[in-house]
Amino acid sequence: MMLYIYTDFYKLFVPGSIQEMLSGLKDGLVVTQVYLLITAIVTIIPAFMIFLSLSLKTKINRWMNIILGAIHLLIGVVNLIGANWGFYIFYGVSLIMIAILIIVYAWKWPRNVKAL
Fold first, then answer.
1. Which of 47, 56, 69, 75 could form a disulfide with 103 if both were Cys (CB 3.0 to 4.6 A apart)?
2. Angle at 103 between CA 101 and CA 108, to 5 degrees
3. What is the C-alpha separation between 110 and 74, in angstroms, rounded?
4. What angle do CA 48, 49, 55 make, to 5 degrees?
């Protein structure tokens, strides 16, 4: 989750980024309340998954981590399209690697572990 914050913070130093933000655009898309709500939901999911990974039953936990990891993997790939700044590529690849690790570890979890 912190990687999203760092990425967006450092992106403010890219020339033209603040002007784009002030114009109500983000990567060419019009920023609306719906856009910001969807962004908030996507970025809060990792925080919820910390708790849910400890409290859900193993089977549900496994599939939630696989599905949500895959969603974040796709988001990471899409965000890298057209990226040309080193820091953005670094953070994007890091997010993709974390998503892949989450998927792999969730797939390998023991089948009979009880929630805390």
1. 69
2. 95
3. 26
4. 100
Q: Give the orientation angle of helix 86-108 with respect to helix 58-80, to 10 degrees.
A: 160
Sequence-distant (6+) residues with CB within 8 A of 14 are: 85
Rounded (10°) CA dihedral 14, 73, 96, 78: -30
20, 26 contact by CB (below 8 A): yes
pTM, 2 dp = 0.83
- Residue 29 identity: L
| Cα–Cα distance for residue pair 12/21, rounded to 1 Å | 9
Length of the chain: 116
- pLDDT of 54-111, one tens digit each? 999 989 999 999 999 999 999 999 989 989 999 999 999 999 999 999 999 999 988 7
Name 54's Cβ contacts closer than 8 Å, sequence gap at least 6: 115, 116
